[in-house]
User: Fold these one by one.
Assistant:
Number 1:
Amino acid sequence: MRLPSYALIAFAVLAAGGGQAQVYPAKPVRLVVPYPPGGPNDVIGRIVATRMTQVLGQQWIVDNRPGRGGVIGHELVTRTPPDGYTLVHGGMGSLTLAPFLGKVPYDPVRDFAPVVMTGRVPNAIVVHPSLPARSVKELVALARARPGQLDYATSGVGSTPHLAAALFLSLARVNLVHIPYKGSAPAVVDVVAGQVPIAFLPVSPLLPHIEAGKLRALGVSSAQRSGLLATLPTVSESGLAGFEMNPWFGVLAPAGTPAAVIARLNGEIARYLATPEAVKQLAVQGADAAAGSTEEFIAVIKSDLAKWGKVIQENGIKGE
């Protein structure tokens, strides 16, 4: 006869536990952006922060902490309490490339709890219109006919475009000369001017020049075609099977952050990134909206560490 009373008590306990789990966030959340204001990581981070402020009812404060290619901001977050109130809008370069290019003060797997991927910013292979190559296959053929005679620009040594180029050279078995720049902007200027005939660079700064006919796009580096250049084939489908470099950004917490907090953040952010509004906002920044589960994000990080560590070592690439 007393079973209903016990059942009610059990229900009350479960309900109370669920209510406590939903208390987060009870105060403002700091989102560390480890890069300067204005870049795609910063802008995407701010888009997410604005939406989460509205959805979760607590202010999300963006805190730019640039330095050492994002390393300083990532390290800062590993030294904060794992309570979900300090997060980082991390990037592929700082987490899966930097550890192989020099010493970093964190372990990309041990020291972080990945929450959700937010966006991918693919690279593209472009050439100056004066170069007689209208496809990836034609570029490979030209490079083989002129080994060591053609230059290519990237946004710097150890950057994601540089790694994309290294993978390209390895798979295509060609020899091009690397001309590293300090960022994408100066590289684009020289390629548009014809000073350097080839470039591996993020799609976003290239788009206006591609659309104006000042640069010829040959292929996009992602595994699937980018919504930003829907008619442009991928490098892989253009004959270089297995080629993929699709730089990502994502939200991470310090290791040890409660699973319930991670799950709440993943659900809310992923839900927003699936909306047409988010897709449009990220597209303006030259990014494809991502999302997915926490487990998928973890798998990407581990896969990239294995893949790009090998490429970096095989090509003898050293950080600056």
Number 2:
Amino acid sequence: MVCLWPAPALAHVESGQAGGFIDGVRHPVSGLDHVLAMVAVGLWGAQLGPPALWLLPVAFPMMMAFGGMLGLIGVPVPGVEIGIAASGVVLGAMVLGEVKAPLAASILLAAVFAVFHGHAHGTELSEGQNAMLYSLGFVISTGMLHAAGIGIGTIHKWKAGQLALRAAGAGVMIGGLVFLWSALA
């Protein structure tokens, strides 16, 4: 009976593909450093208003997918952990200061940090898993974190909400500083 048990079927490609998508969805939410930065993109977009409200959360996953591809094919990107930690510091500071940067500069800033986050996702794909499904998973999960930031950011229209968002920015920035400290240690 044990010899006939269907466990060897788990070695089929289909098993890795499903795990690839699920792992991709889980990865951005599995680390507070990723969560803070990705929610901060939505918060900052909400503070900036249209069109940044939509362009930042679109540009970030696009460039994150590019960074993920670099990680998947083994192209080294120096300072990934420092870049991820710095994204929390800088994006948190943008929200804290309600910085109204020009649209192109805001998109560029988000895009640069997205490459670091994507590279980290790309290099952590487990052996034998489907890179396309994994990438799709982490892009979808990132989009949901941005959407959460945008949803929270809707409180910006009230004075108390503006203060609460700035406090959230301070929290993201402090979290980023803690991650930066540990990345440099």
Number 3:
Amino acid sequence: MESSEIKEMVRGTYSLIALQTKEENDASCCGVGNCCTVDYAVFSENYNELEGYHADADLGLGCGLPTEFAQIKSGDVVVDLGSGAGNDCFVARAIVGDSGKVIGVDFTETMIEKARENADKLGFNNVEFRMGDIENIPIAANRADVVISNCVLNLVPNKLQAFKEMFRILKIDGHFSVSDVVLVGDLPENIKNAAELYAGCVSGAIQKDEYLKLLKEVGFENISVQKEKKVIIPDEILRVYLTDSELEEFRNNGAGIYSITVYGEKSNCCALEQDCC
């Protein structure tokens, strides 16, 4: 698919997901009934113990807990890329306090509307949600102390451009902590080419080594994987795309789908010869 087609497909899928509850999303194959892609419950983490968690904002779409590792401090400006209904934003807001600010960016109108409704119900005046594309983030350069994201960057067609934008909006000595889905080894062609599995955060994922290489290429330093776990996609989902023999080969070839949380710092703003120092 072309980049524009991918974005419209992802936007359409997540627009439908925004209209459902977490329970409805957990009960259907990909959050939208009968679409035969990935059950997001295989990726999601438990937020119940985190301060600032609000169940109404949790659609069960994450693949990690980036705020747990993001070293957010009171008074920070935090940007959440692909903020959905506001789940990670509200957790971040509990850390930054009244003196900080949280900006959520999402390109799905229904998600933005839901997030703003949640913020209004909670009475937060320092949490803001903006419509925007992660390949062209609607935030000025050198604005954020911390960038977070949860299982979203794998959906962006041009990941290098998304990482460049992360670098641009971070302040010097700012940092990011993002949870995402990556691959180790090759996926079968039928999975790579499945549009439904792109929206399900699988076919759009890239190799782990390539992911980390792109972050370094952009100029980030002190890059580290803070958490990693293998994600097991149920056979009943994979059988939609693979024969039994193909499924057995995939299970035995050492390939893996992983949820990782990655950290990196912007300690040298001139790494890309940008006029930002």
